[in-house]
Specification:
The complex is a heterotrimer of chains A (193), B (681) and C (113). Chain A has six helices and no strands. Chain A has 193 residues and is mainly alpha-helical. In chain C, 65% of the residues lie in helices and 0% in strands. In chain C, α2 packs antiparallel against α3. The chains are: A mainly alpha (193), B mainly alpha (681), C mainly alpha (113).
């Protein structure tokens, strides 16, 4: 920890505290989308219902995202131990899994649209696409952050004695994962009908 | 005046090296100084306040006669929507933010906020969001569905009007959210040694509560606005009854945000009044602890009353009872505050300066607004009042008579702090009395016309309401004329005092809190040496001490550090005199030049030894990147308004490039200063 | 909310960088997450009757706590972070539950008859 941290009132780094403050507000954000989705479960205007979800496919992509949290935390662990080679490797692995997840989501969206579930079709469809879409945007931002972090380890912007940077990006990444843990169960698995 | 520059950089200049100018236009465009950002918020607010005022002239001119045809319905709808949006989002909220910016670091004894560049980001985003909203004028698409934007009306108005509403508020919301993250982190983590939570000035407490409210309320409106944006521009079905969408969902989401928003606007004013009253009553704030907890309680309960805005739309009997009760509850902490202010003045040596007059005006006008507010808790009563001018009267008494009076009080109180000059008191008193009379003349009669059945948001005053209602409306219009004159008096006073006001000295009010320990105007480096806080009214305790028989005496010069013995009774110093301003140790309050000379050049590579050096002061370097990055919201905003994917992609890329430029800048703040939360704020 | 922070006051909250789990423990937690996801997945094929939804929610809660507690270090970090997360989570659940109840008490299309 740098000298700056010991000078703060709570003995924590500003950036880490700031990230947690921000994450606290993100629950409100996704909560509203999930509420709208649950409200509109049966409001399908004659269009496709939740029956359309491919549970096997989504389970696999959910699993990929869940495991990306493992590689993220391993990257942080490697950074704490100053092992930058491993850290870079795990960061790339995390970003790659994120890409697989987003790619899978893009494929899933295309498939649904082809099967008649379009965002403009019904409140149910709007709520589904906007909820999962905003989660996808969060994952994409995370990937950009990870790739930035990866490239900065080469330029000296992120040094081997600064694992806090990896930890803060990791917090964001795990948070996005946690939201998907909820979405996976609430949107896909629970047979609300 | 010589141009002030930041300490020279050790690195060669490149595209990514940080700007150094602290003065002039460049100094403002690149500033990361919380004081300058606060000042920029203030000037932006003045401009927006003018436009909001123009909109109110249109409304009052139209309503000055029954069955008037001065403006048509469309123009009227745009005028009252723009008036509401401007006053809420572009005047009262950012004026609060101006005070947060200027005062929070000073009051907690910090040199800046936790994330100085994020702070600049917040300001520019707010400004661009406001300009974006106003750019709808050029597209003949000024929002026209009310500031509450009720669906399905808002989703079905033809044209881009409500798209501008959805996107404009979204951008302004991003500004407030990033500011909330910043201020919460600052207050929690940047306090001077000894500045415990229960020693913080009440303004800082109220700021903390306000920013927590922002933090948890803004995501809700963000979601609602995204949904509205989708419905209006991209054809989603969230609030479309035709496919089974529920417009009441909009109402719930909007008021889940909208009611905390009311407290977001009033709490900063309450904080300012809690600073002004003790100073001009020469007494500590009565019931500090009760004041703090009442503020926190308002924050909590403020989240649980939203459905009282919806009693006549779609809330069942259980909901009506529950929300009626919570609405009555929230009057309790508010009442606690009112009593505490009154008891602060009670028995004090009250000095009725203009700042104090506005604070007293705040308490009395806000009490009237609070009393009419409690009537909304009684559901049958509320059902009669809904959508009448009674409601308009009520919320103007709390937002104008409350929030704005408190904030104006803050302007008079802190003008010397910011400029080193005093606002003219004679003109100030003219301003106050015309303001008070004009305000009551404008909004007082609305109680009556509302109870007599005049509907709000209606372009034409129906002739069948009779001559009484017409008279009340004419009084209101006359009141706006008085308010306009009053505002001009203020503006004249402000400009002339700014140019040639009487010098104020460092501590013109004999104030109590840390911000007055610094010279006025506050130098670039707030505190050369961070003060150690030992008491609630730290500055007062340094200036005065109580003798055994309870008499307050100034502390002799130089003895202040250890809160030394009071001057013996019989000494020439009297209690009436201004406190011993020299009680401030020389190493805390130093002039601009001295402080700058002591700021050593930052090693932009982050030299760890430098931080250990006692004489090393880290000041945040200026940066253009917040400004550059925020400009990306303009193409993104128009893309979302006109469904133009190219613009959306351009805006997103712009933001991303801005973010990377931001990160790649040389470091100066601490060992590094990458702000991840700025990325997705 | 604001007052939760009061308890944390100014006494220095120690950062527990050295108490973080080892890489091995992280992998074990990931193994548990894998197992829990597999159990969730199995509910799609097996009928659990009235326990179906509660079971899924419990599994979800455990996964949530594992990721938040270990991967996000909430279990080891200062409690301010935990309080921020709980405030956001509990606040969101309470508010949206209340809004949902209000919406259901007066369902769309019920009219004001």
């Amino acid at each position: 920890m740098s000298a700056a941290v010991e000078e703060t009132s709570m003995g924590i780094d500003n950036r880490k505290l700031g990230m947690w403050v921000f994450l606290g507000s993100e629950f409100m954000f996704f909560g509203a989308f999930i509420t709208a989705y649950l409200l509109y479960l049966n409001t399908t205007a004659g269009g496709p219902t939740g029956e359309i979800f491919d549970i096997v496919y989504t389970s696999i992509s959910s699993f990929v995202l869940l495991m990306s949290s493992l590689t993220m935390v391993l990257a942080h662990n490697a950074h704490v131990h100053g092992d930058m080679r491993r850290m870079r490797l795990w960061i790339l692995a995390t970003a790659l899994q994120g890409l697989v997840f987003v790619g899978g989501q893009a494929y899933e969206f295309t498939k649904f649209v082809n099967e008649g579930l379009v965002p403009t079709g019904s409140p149910f469809a709007s709520a589904f696409f906007v909820l999962t879409g905003f989660h996808g945007i969060h994952v994409t931002v995370g990937i950009i952050l990870l790739l930035g972090l990866w490239s900065y380890t080469h330029t000296g912007k992120v040094k081997s004695d600064q694992p806090l940077k990896t930890e803060i990006i990791g917090l964001y990444w795990h948070f996005v994962d946690i939201i998907w843990v909820i979405i996976f169960v609430v949107v896909y698995l629970i047979p609300w009908g | 005046m010589a141009t002030t520059t930041a300490p020279p950089q050790t690195r060669s200049r490149s595209l990514l090296s940080r700007p150094t100018a602290l003065d002039g236009l460049k100094g403002y465009l690149a500033t990361t100084d919380h004081k300058k950002i606060g000042i920029m918020y203030f000037w932006s607010v003045l401009v927006f306040f003018f436009f909001g005022g123009v909109a109110s002239w249109v409304i009052r001119a139209q309503l000055a006669a029954a069955e008037n045809t001065l403006v048509n319905e469309e123009v009227y709808n745009q005028a009252f929507t723009l008036h509401g949006l401007t006053m809420v989002f572009l005047v009262v909220m950012p004026l609060g933010a101006a005070f947060f910016n200027y005062l929070i670091p000073l009051q907690i004894g910090a040199r800046d906020v936790a994330f100085p560049r994020l702070n600049a980001f917040s300001f520019w985003t707010f400004l661009f969001g406001g300009l974006f909203l106003y750019s709808s004028l050029f597209f003949q698409a000024v929002p026209n569905g009310g500031w509450f934007g009720y669906a399905p009306l808002s989703t079905q108005i033809p044209g881009d009007n409500m798209a501008f509403y959805a996107v404009g508020l979204q951008i302004v919301g991003i500004a407030s959210l990033s500011a909330a993250v910043n201020f919460i982190t600052t207050i929690l983590n940047m306090r001077a040694p000894g500045m415990e939570f229960m020693r913080m000035p009440v303004f800082v407490w109220m700021s903390l509560v306000t920013n927590f409210l922002l933090l948890f309320a803004l995501p809700i409106i963000a979601v609602a606005l995204f949904m509205l944006n989708g419905d209006v521009v991209f054809g989603t079905q969230f609030f479309q009854p035709a496919t089974g969408g529920d417009p009441i969902l909009w109402q719930h989401l909007f008021w889940l945000f909208g009611h905390p928003e009311v407290y977001i606007m009033i709490l900063p004013a309450m904080g300012i009044v809690s600073e002004v009253m003790p100073t001009f009553s020469r007494k500590p704030l009565f019931g500090y602890t009760a004041m703090v907890f009442a503020g926190v309680a308002i924050g909590f309960i403020g989240f649980g009353v939203w459905a009282h805005h919806m009693f006549t739309s779609a809330v069942g009997p259980i909901g009506r009872v529950a929300f009626g009760l919570t609405t009555m509850f929230i009057a309790v902490p508010t009442g606690i505050k009112i009593f505490n202010w009154v008891f602060t003045m009670w028995g004090g040596k009250v000095r009725f300066t203009t700042a104090m007059l506005f604070s007293v005006g705040f308490v009395s006008m806000f009490t009237i607004g609070g009393l009419s507010g409690v009537t909304h808790a009684i559901v049958p009563h509320d059902a009669q009042q809904t959508d009448t001018y009674w409601i308009v009267a009520h919320f103007h008494y709390v937002l104008f008579g409350g929030a704005l009076f408190g904030l104006v009080s803050g302007i008079y109180y802190y003008f010397p702090k910011v400029t080193g000059k005093l606002l003219n008191e004679t003109l100030g008193k003219w301003h106050f009395w015309t303001w008070l009379i004009g305000f009551n003349l404008t909004f007082g009669p609305m109680h009556m016309s509302g109870l007599l059945g005049q509907p709000r948001r209606t372009a034409v005053l129906p002739g069948e309401l009779g001559p009484d209602v017409l008279l009340y409306n004419q009084l209101s219009t006359a009141g706006v004329a008085v308010l306009t004159v009053s505002a001009l008096i203020f503006l004249f006073n402000f400009i002339t005092s700014l140019r040639s006001g009487e010098a104020s000295g460092d501590d013109p009010w004999d104030a109590r809190t840390l911000e007055w320990m610094t010279p006025s105007p506050t130098p670039y480096v707030n505190f050369y040496e961070i003060p150690t806080v030992t008491a609630r009214d730290e500055f007062w305790e340094r200036k005065y001490a109580e003798t055994e028989d309870g008499v307050v005496r100034p502390v002799p010069m130089g003895a202040s550090q250890d809160h030394g013995e009071p001057v013996p009774v019989g000494d020439t110093a009297t209690v009436e005199g201004t406190g011993n301003a020299s009680a401030v140790p020389d190493d805390i309050a130093v002039t601009e030049d001295v402080a700058l000379a002591k700021v050593t050049s930052d090693d932009h590579g982050g030299n760890p030894d430098a931080a250990d050096d006692d004489h090393h002061i880290h000041m945040p370097d200026p940066s253009y990147w917040p400004l550059i990055m925020c400009a990306g919201f303009i193409p993104l905003g128009y893309g979302l308004t006109f469904a133009a994917p190219t613009l959306i992609v351009l805006g997103a890329l712009w933001l991303m490039i801005g973010m990377f430029g931001w990160i790649l800048e040389p470091l100066a703040e601490g060992d590094d200063d990458y702000d991840p939360d700025a990325v997705h704020a | 909310m604001a007052d939760t922070a009061t308890e944390a006051t100014t006494d220095v909250a120690v950062t527990h960088d050295d108490h973080h789990p080892s890489a091995r423990e992280y992998v074990q937690i990931a193994g548990a997450l894998f197992g829990l996801t597999a159990m969730e997945f199995s509910t799609y094929f097996i009928e659990f009757g009235p326990l179906h939804i509660p079971l899924l929610l419990v599994l979800m809660g455990i996964k949530f706590m594992l990721v938040a507690g270990f991967f996000m270090h909430l279990k080891f970090d200062t409690r301010v972070f935990r309080q921020l997360m709980i405030t956001g989570l509990v606040g969101a659940m309470t508010l949206y539950l209340a809004a949902t109840l209000a919406l259901h008490e007066f369902p769309a299309g019920a009219g004001l008859g």
